[in-house]
């Protein structure tokens, strides 16, 4: 048994070859939900869906977002209608009182669907409509995710980190904004002053997640702040990691990040944007997998390999390094 913590693109890229090393039927993936948004009334779960689409063999692995070959007719028509009506595009937050009304799981991250600021494919949208409708029928996010995983024939078990709302809010000189506005719409342009995981003080990991954290845990090369931060902000989640073997793959080579806004976000929350900073952020990690060119001296066991992943063979190589690191701390 092994459990991967997933967010962004780092861990899904690792999963691309992990099935050659770890039995998928004995593998659980716990996905970040702090990035989720409600867009036009539909709950979009980007990190859950990347794993869902990857496991179903339909993920667009050029972008690591959405369904390969998907069309965008509805998205384009929404923008056409907004232009024709003279409606402003860009992120359109619902009014403050609407942010905490309706279904709890979407609190603090509700956006209008007018000229939607995230490109949602037509087939992708069908997943969000189905997810939201099942939630409205009374099922939990965990239950809904299992239904969708069955529809996509996943071999692994895929779990959301919680059935409670946690929203990743980036604080900037321009004011607070949801992570999706910061990253998708603004392309990480505003300076990061802090990052808040709104709702985490009352959120809890589900019993299924806590059971999964009893197994050895792999933290893939995901963003330590916005991919792992929402999980670690739940006390019970962080506590569980202390008592199980954990191996983390650094998303940095010393101070160079592979992709995404990890460096800016780590600096914004007061951590050194480097492998050393990742180690400081992960005191629960028992061992690390670092790139062969990363000479960072850590106080825990290290396995080195080429950690750049551009395909299944690369991912398998990193997964085998993870396996060796787990054996060292088992």
Any overview of this molecule?
With 330 residues, the protein is an alpha/beta fold. It has twelve helices and 15 strands. It has a seven-stranded parallel sheet with strand order 6-2-1-10-11-14-15. Strands 4-3-5 form a three-stranded mixed sheet. A hairpin with a 2-residue loop joins strand 12 and strand 13. The longest helix has 18 residues.
> How do the strands line up in the largest sheet?
6-2-1-10-11-14-15
Low-pLDDT runs? none
Helix content: 25-40%
| Radius of gyration computed on alpha carbons | 19 Å
User: What's the overall geometry?
Assistant: globular
User: How much β-strand is present in the residues?
Assistant: 15-25%
- How far the N terminus sits from the C terminus, by CA atoms, comes to 12 Å
What profile does the largest beta sheet have?
A: 7 strands, parallel
Number of strands: 15
Arithmetic mean of pLDDT: 97
Number of distinct helices = 12
Which class do the helix and strand fractions yield? alpha/beta
Helix and strand succession?
EHEEEHHEHHEEEHEHEHHEEEHHEEH
Enzyme class: transferase
Family: Belongs to the CofD family.
Pfam families: CofD (PF01933)
Catalytic activity: (2S)-lactyl-2-diphospho-5'-guanosine + 7,8-didemethyl-8-hydroxy-5-deazariboflavin = oxidized coenzyme F420-0 + GMP + H(+)
């Amino acid at each position: 048994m092994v459990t991967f913590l997933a967010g962004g693109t780092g861990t899904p890229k690792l999963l691309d070859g992990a099935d050659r090393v770890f039995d998928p039927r004995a593998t659980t993936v716990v996905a970040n939900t702090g990035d989720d948004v409600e867009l036009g009334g539909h709950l979009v779960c980007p990190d859950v869906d990347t794993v869902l689409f990857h496991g179903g063999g339909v993920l667009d692995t050029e972008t690591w977002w959405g369904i390969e070959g998907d069309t965008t007719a509805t998205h384009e028509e929404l923008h056409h209608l907004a232009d024709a009506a003279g409606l402003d595009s860009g992120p359109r937050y619902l009014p403050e009182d609407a942010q905490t009304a309706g279904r709890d799981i979407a609190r603090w991250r509700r956006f209008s669907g007018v000229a939607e600021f995230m490109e949602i494919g037509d087939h992708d949208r069908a997943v969000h409509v189905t997810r939201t409708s099942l939630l409205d029928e009374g099922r939990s996010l965990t239950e809904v995710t299992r239904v969708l995983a069955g529809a996509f024939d996943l071999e692994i078990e895929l779990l959301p980190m919680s059935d409670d709302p946690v929203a990743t809010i980036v604080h900037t000189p321009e004011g607070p904004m949801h992570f999706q506005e910061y990253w998708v719409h603004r392309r990480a342009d505003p300076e990061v002053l802090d990052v808040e995981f709104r709702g985490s003080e009352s959120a809890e990991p589900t019993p299924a997640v806590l059971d999964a954290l009893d197994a050895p845990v792999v933290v893939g090369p995901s963003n330590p702040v916005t991919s792992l931060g929402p999980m670690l902000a739940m006390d019970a989640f962080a506590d569980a990691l202390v008592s199980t073997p954990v191996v983390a793959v650094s998303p940095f080579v010393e101070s160079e990040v592979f992709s995404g806004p990890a460096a800016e976000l780590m600096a914004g929350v007061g951590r050194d944007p480097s492998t050393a900073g990742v180690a400081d952020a992960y005191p629960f990690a028992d061992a690390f997998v670092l790139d062969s060119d990363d000479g960072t001296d850590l106080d825990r066991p290290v396995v080195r390999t080429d950690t750049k992943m551009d395909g299944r063979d690369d991912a398998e190589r990193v997964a085998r390094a993870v396996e060796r690191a787990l054996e060292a701390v088992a």
